[in-house]
């Protein structure tokens, strides 16, 4: 009989008990950022602030979320997931309520900064916990289900926030999110074990500095290519998404509501892609091949949308949907691959990759803002597809595991 102490601790926990709170955490991280897209004007009117300044509420959340991730990832690898995730989730929830109660714009801005700082610890650690607690054979599917929470947060929060604002006022949108945060904290407290890194992992990390941990993470085989793909592929994909609605609207003379409807279809098919992670990994034979397939499919999808302006509407729409599905399963597959490669430095690696993704978004939106007015969608497509090709080459030549 096996020694009970040697039995992996995830075997005593059900799949749902682990994945549901992690997906809920990711939902909150996405929803708290994107809910502002539909309620900035009412918030500006409430605080007597012009629209350009109200947009700082988005920056106040996104900036610390991108910059502080590696710090919290390294601390999580040293101290354990529970010691980082639960306090961060509590701070996130309190700060969300603080936005709802903010009497002035500076107070709301500070609360959003605190909320974004806490979110920096939540996203990467949610994926790291999937790597810690889910057996390798089920890990790609679990990554997809966890990522689905983020996708739903992106899609649902603007509509939900807008409806709540119309019915009760914008402050109640944050009250609802804060209440969801309480539920997420309770479910996470029940799911995350006190020994929240697998037995034998984390050895030697207590005595090293955070900076040394980050440097050693980059030395792991296959990790640099995976992190680069997060920026060059996933980051670029999100960056192009920001301009895709304008491509549809100007090319086919769509109304705002029609454009919004087709953009919503992208979100639905991205969720479908999240659910296809496990079948795709099984079909391709490895997580790495699933990532490479995702890059290729995204290349064809965005290429069809941007590089062929003469495409009829149906062909462009099919390309758009192809992009959604392939990115939908490819993104979680890349997270699963990085989690496998990272080992004891899982949270550090995944937090660095999250920051790389944010940098990719910033760089792509910068280039598309310049190329779209000058060269139209073709300029956007050239930038994106060159980025995807480089990501594919780096990933294909990577010496990391292909399991």
TrEMBL record:
Residues annotated as domain Major facilitator superfamily (MFS) profile: 18-403
Keyword vocabulary terms for this entry: Cell membrane, Membrane, Transmembrane, Transmembrane helix
Keyword Cell cycle applies: no
InterPro entries listed in its UniProt record: MFS, MFS_dom, MFS_Efflux_Transporters, MFS_trans_sf, Tet-R_TetA/multi-R_MdtG-like
Membrane topology field: Multi-pass membrane protein
Subcellular location field: Cell membrane
Annotated PROSITE patterns: MFS
Transmembrane segments: 12-31, 51-72, 84-103, 109-130, 142-164, 170-192, 231-248, 260-278, 290-314, 320-342, 349-369, 375-394
SUPFAM superfamilies: MFS general substrate transporter
UniProt keyword annotation of Glycoprotein present: no
PANTHER family in UniProt: CHLORAMPHENICOL EFFLUX PUMP RV0191, PURINE EFFLUX PUMP PBUE
Name listed for the protein in its UniProt record: MFS transporter
Source organism of this protein record: Pendulispora rubella
Lineage: Bacteria, Pseudomonadati, Myxococcota, Myxococcia, Myxococcales
């Amino acid at each position: 009989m096996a020694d009970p102490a040697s039995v992996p601790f995830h075997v005593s926990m059900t799949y749902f008990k682990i994945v549901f709170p992690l997906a809920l955490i990711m939902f909150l991280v996405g929803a708290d950022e994107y809910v502002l897209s539909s309620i900035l004007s009412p918030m500006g009117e409430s605080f007597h602030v012009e629209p350009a300044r109200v947009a700082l509420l988005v920056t106040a959340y996104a900036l610390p979320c991108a910059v502080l991730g590696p710090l919290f990832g390294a601390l999580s690898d040293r101290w354990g997931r529970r010691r980082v995730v639960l306090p961060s989730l509590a701070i996130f929830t309190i700060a969300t309520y603080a936005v709802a109660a903010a009497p002035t714009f500076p107070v709301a801005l500070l609360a959003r900064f605190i909320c974004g700082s806490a979110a920096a610890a939540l996203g990467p650690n949610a994926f790291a916990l999937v790597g810690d607690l889910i057996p390798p054979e089920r890990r790609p599917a679990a990554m997809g289900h966890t990522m689905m929470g983020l996708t739903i947060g992106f899609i649902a929060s603007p509509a939900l926030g807008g409806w709540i604002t119309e019915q009760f006022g914008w402050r109640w949108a944050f009250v609802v999110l804060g209440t969801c945060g309480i539920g997420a904290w309770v479910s996470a407290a029940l799911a995350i074990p006190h020994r929240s890194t697998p037995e034998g992992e984390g050895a030697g990390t207590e005595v090293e500095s955070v900076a040394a941990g980050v440097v050693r993470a980059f030395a792991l085989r296959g990790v640099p290519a995976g992190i680069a793909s997060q920026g060059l592929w996933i980051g670029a994909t999100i960056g192009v998404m920001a301009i895709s609605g304008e491509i549809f609207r100007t090319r086919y003379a769509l109304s705002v509501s029609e454009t919004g409807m087709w953009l919503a279809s992208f979100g639905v098919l991205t969720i479908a892609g999240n659910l296809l992670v496990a079948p795709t990994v099984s079909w391709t034979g490895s997580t790495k091949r699933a990532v490479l397939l995702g890059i290729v499919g995204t290349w064809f999808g965005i290429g069809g949308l941007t590089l062929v302006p003469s495409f009829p509407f149906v062909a462009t729409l099919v390309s758009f949907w192809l992009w959604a599905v392939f990115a939908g399963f490819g993104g979680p597959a890349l997270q699963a691959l990085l989690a496998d490669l990272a080992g004891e430095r899982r949270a550090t690696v995944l937090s660095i990759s999250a920051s790389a993704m944010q940098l990719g978004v910033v760089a792509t939106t910068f280039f598309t803002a310049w190329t779209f007015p000058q060269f139209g969608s073709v300029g956007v497509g050239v930038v994106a597809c060159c980025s995807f090709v480089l990501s594919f080459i780096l990933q294909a030549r990577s010496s990391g595991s292909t399991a």
